[in-house]
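hiii so my PI (J.) wants the whole complex modelled not just the main chain, which honestly fair. so below is everything: two entries, each one labled with what it is. i double checked the lines twice but i was tired so who knows lol
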Amino acid sequence: MTKIESLQHELVELYTNNLAEISSFDNPLMNNIRNSAFESFKQLGIPTRKTEAYKYTNLEPYLTGLEYQYDLSPLSLEVNLDDIFHCDIPELATQIALVLNGFYYRHNRPLNLPRGVILCGLAEASVKYPELVQKHYGKYADEKADSMAALTTMFAQDGVFLYVPENVVIETPIQIINVGYSIKNIRISRRNLIVLEDNARASVLFCDHTMCAKSFITNSLTEIFVGENANFDFVRLQNENSNSSQISNTFIYQKAGSVTTNNTLSLHGGLIRNNIFVKLDGENAASNTYGLFLADSEQHMSTYTYIHHAKPHCTSDQLVKGILDNMATGSFNGKIYVDNYAVKTSAYQRNNNILLSGTAKMNTKPQLEIYNDDVKCSHGATIGQLDTEALFYIRSRGIAYTEARQLLMYAFANEVISKIKLDALRERIIEMVDKRLRGELAACANCNIVHKN
Amino acid sequence: MLEINNLYASIEGKEILKGINLTVNPGEVHAIMGPNGSGKSTLAAVLAGRDLFEVTEGSAEFLGNNLLELSPEDRARMGLFLGFQYPVEIPGVSMVNFMKTAINEQRKYNNLEPLSASDFLKLMREKKEIVEITSSLTNRSVNEGFSGGEKKKNEIFQMAMLEPKLAILDETDSGLDIDALRIVANGVNKLRTKHNATIVITHYQRLLDYIVPDYVHVLYKGKIVKSSGKELALELEEKGYDWIKEQY
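here's the output for the full assembly
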């Protein structure tokens, strides 16, 4: 039996033997789809290099080799929010909600949200607002698309539920902080559900952190429903320790005239795999998928996108950039799929990468699949090094080599960062990326969450 | 100030400079002329520290230091400036950030405190006027989308900011219309003092109508084959480079 096969076996047993306990956390709706996800997982198996979408992401070294436990109930530990988070971004008053090891933290501060807006744990929501949750939960995710999505659904007991009613605009960004905190190595599963009704507008900042040097394997799945002419803007800041792995699946479903913008900034982590599925299922919908990843040592960072144009007159734009140093590896696998009746589609995709060392490795695979001839589509990918002409030009003005490199790396990264709409957040992220590129600790300046390499 | 002795340099085994001798003193303007491919730009690049070229023989001293042992940034901090024939576009790096970093690195080298934001902006304003740069230029990325003329003005602007002791201007006149040429040349003249020196590399005599050299050297096949006063430039203009080629 290969290591992956034994892991598969272990997870199947874990599920079968603990189903009662997994299901005991008060979440009937989530329980309803566990078994079908389990069937998908058994059928698909953990992805290996033979799985097309994971050809360039070898999960084995990251997922096997260590003993992990599953926390089947929320950590009883009390967390002092004030002690942990001074994660205040100046001039950006965010509403903060903490998710601890996949469970919505019980003692989150009361939030000041517009009337009708719901932000709570998904398990809580499934009891308090069963109709709302039932209408959307499991409707956009496809467990058959990725077995790691199925694995998430099997074990997830909680996560975040955000509901924004029709015509409601949330002015203040919501910050959801996912924290891994444990005295032992653990697996974390969480599912999030975000629903924006017609004409709603919201922006969310997700921060993924590990709070100690333990090893965490996180499987997360987020479903996002964006109603007609609604606007959803979200930034993901992934900043975990090098012992930790994260495989995240995001499924976005968009109605006519809606706009989503997603900036995923992968600053640090052992393995980070982001699968992003977008379905543009109404005319004039627009999807923007941006990403920046900075990988060094033996980290692996990988982005997989699947943008499905299902209706006419939609636009999608993708830009993913990566900087890889040392022995780091990365991959980009991006697909634009245009249905035969999705005429007047505009779809763009670009992936640019810089390798700073001779041992870093990047694989990129842009793909288009188009079934009508009235579209504007383009894709492109590059893998290169820092421009030596530009380096010399900068140095010839008296700027040291290391600083010249820093300027060029920053300039490269800035194309993605500049797409972040919130000024205060962008400023803070500029600082963090600058530090990260200097090889300093990637932790936020005001955060006590330190990332030990 | 600059003392070049028997300098040989090659690229990928191909010898380009074949024994250059040149002395430049404070207050002087030297023009280096010569046909295409004679090694003019190579000489400029070697002096600025471009590592594409390998110095195989000879020496170059700058203010008493062995220039060839220094990194490009140290040469610049000591007061050497290269005006590029083809200024490099650097998308994403703003002119302001670029110049601020350069100025403060130079100040750090000279044990000075970094310039305050307001002093820096004041300095930028002053120096922009020297080359008649409109304010919009400095808010853009370094050379990105600049016209040929703007790029060359930007080189002289950077020179004005850094106040070098020795400026080497590599074909600063190429691609300039007559108005831009006048502005660029005026800029260089305004920056002249009796303490600094300039080496003007050019293919045409035209620029030397505006920047009047003390010495004119003709570089041909990697060697300085003729040196004289400014009248040599006029003679070259009249007789053409064939006149040199026939003799050497």
